[in-house]
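Posted in: Protein Modeling Q&A

I'm a second-year student putting together a small comparison for a lab meeting, and my supervisor asked me to include a predicted structure for TonB-dependent receptor. I've never done this before, so apologies if this is the wrong subforum. The sequence is pasted below exactly as I got it from our records. If anyone can share the structure token output, I'd also love a short note on what stands out.
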Amino acid sequence: MRTSHAGRSRLVVSILIALAAGASHADEAPDKDPTRLQTVVVTGTRSVNRSQSSSLSPIDIVTAQDLQSSGDTQLGAVLSRLVPSLNFPRAPGNDGSGIVRPAALRGLSPDETLVLVNGKRWHTGALLNLQGALGRGSAPADLNAIPVSAIDHIEVLRDGASAQYGSDAIAGVINIVLKGAATQGSNEASITAGRYSAGDGRQWQGDASIGVPLGGDKGWARLSVVQGHADTTDRGGRDDRDPTSPVYGQKTQRIGEPDIRTHQALLNVQYAVAHNVDFYAFASTSSREGTSPALFRTYNSSRNIPSIYPDGYLPLNDVRSIDSAVVAGLRGTTDGGWRWDISGNYGRSRVSIDPTHTLNVDLGAGSPTRFDAGRLVATQKAVDVDIAKDLSVSWLTNPLTLAFGVEYLYQGYRIAAGEPASYVGTGSQGFPGFQPGDAGYHGRHDVAEYISLENQITEKLSGSLAIRHEDYTDFGKTTSGTLSARYDFTDTFALRGTAATGFRAPSLPQQFYSTTSTNVIGGVPTQIRNFAVNNPVAQALGAEPLKAEKSHNYTLGAVYAPGAWTVSLDIYQITIGNRIVPSENLVGDDVRAYLDNHGFPGIQGGSYFTNALKTRTRGVDLSSGYRFDFGSAGNLQLSAAYSRNHTSILSVAANPPQLAQNGLELVRVGHIAQGYITDGAPRDKIVLGADYGVAGWSLHGGLTRYGQFRVNQDPVSNPGYDQIFPARWLLDLSASYAVAGWSFTAGVDNLTNVYPQKYRAGSDGAVGGTWPYPDYSPFGYSGRYLYTRVAYRW
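Accepted answer (user: helix_wrangler)
Welcome! Here is the predicted structure, written out as tokens:
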């Protein structure tokens, strides 16, 4: 663990105090003052006494109570309502990304944000988001694999932190802190149910978290479980493309929320095994299953067999995502004041995508309609040794916190082939199976060492310095550094800043993922290969071994906290070189001829991952809160936050020389993909909140403005159809009443039933009017959601 034992002990104490207060005033409205609920932070620092208000970097704290502020049961979706700099698009399909959804900070790629659980690196997902989705080409950690009922609070570090945590922490860090000790009032069971006002999308979810003491006061164990089900929503438009079609004027394309069945459990344990030595562990399992739609195949399409589907068909992908993790370790403090932590970490993500309600045209009228397309598995094994001590230095007024450690990290990635019927010929429509040539296992090792120094240099000036060196067996070595400082001009006003370098190792899926997919090119569905970068065909087309992304991060901020009012402002710039993206599809008669001449006959075209871009992201984050205490008349907590950022493409890698010599050009990043990177996320976001509590009642209001975003269209088949989607305001309201341990909540998300603007008629994105809304609307397009929740605490 990257945090100290003493710091963790203070965190546990603060949690116990908060829980005890909640237990002794169960009939009172909850206290939403974040400064009272949480003061000690453990993310981005190894100091034992660093608070959120005195942090050298911007940190958002989201409490378990905050996570209950909406009816949404997806962790990423709730966080996007609470953290303005976080985006959680709700893509309807895209080969599984509707089930395994990515979350992104500061407008960057989802895999450029590191996810920790109790300070430990959470494994990345097996699913590679390849289709037209925000974060295209990423394989990030799956936030929704962590049971919400197990979460005490979440710390979102909005700053580069590779020098502290290693790869992926370019945009920031999301550290999920689990519920711990068993105390009076800390156990809870709840059930949430709701549906959309359109009449579909019914959902229910049961949550429970139960803790028990172990060995008297020596330790505790806590089990948290989640069981839930969500039905689909469908906001597809009428298919008016072909008047001769038997389904003319009907809905043929399903877009909206997928159906998801969720089963999750997490066990968290701590036990004192000796004086000042604790054993700790947590183990989790998560299974989520759902169905994602592909594109509708018309009755007269060459990809249909009329004897099977006379009216055409909508291929569906049955997606199952299974995540498991185990972390165990020992931590303690020596008599000399050295804090130490030794831990082991195992994580596994397994994703299967099995096409159903489909066919393989090359198998004729006897084609199956359901296929086993294979499996994707990502694994992680890590061993960490972390040591820290507060040293007395004669020429320093305050102790110097020295921390150092080593980490061994192993990552593996496996592709398992599907059944032959899923990949023979063009393969199963919607998602062709993995072929034996795609299948294989790939792994790599990394050894890292780090050292950090942190000190309250004077009464007003504090600073920290961290350096981390990594040695990966695939791309090589890299070193990252972070320098942070803070100056408190008064007790209420301070400036803070960070300069950091960082990196993101090329993921194993980006290096070795290989499959056939159906992409729409010029309005026509086309079978295209995605090659591993070491594939001879990819190398003939110019592929090279992937290098690590390298970042430079600069942040300057101000904090003002007079009395009950707090406000912070941070501006930042993040420059990323060697940014990894999937290339555009290289297709055409000249490409086929080139590959034929190089000994690769019969290949229609393909793409591969490449270090294509240098980008620069600039932005600003503003947050403010004020608390009114009216005595017996209750209390009111107001909050306001604003985030704005924009990414520019500074340069694009040159055309591979072997292609240039033969008159071919690889488009590293096309017009549509550029839009994903520069304008696919909302340009800005405003989050306003109000919480009023009195005599057992708690009223919550949240108003969110999602700024404009843009969708680019094919400049050849759809020139002039790039579209800017204007900003939208969404209002969420809820009311709760607590009595004798029970709480009853009724609420509505998106009260005014707001939808994003529709695609313009004739746009490729609209697919003939069947797909009226943009894929990556930041708030989806299912409309108003009504819900109730009943909970009991003891």
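A couple of things worth pointing out for your meeting: The longest strand covers residues 609-629. Residues 5-24 form the longest helix (20 residues).
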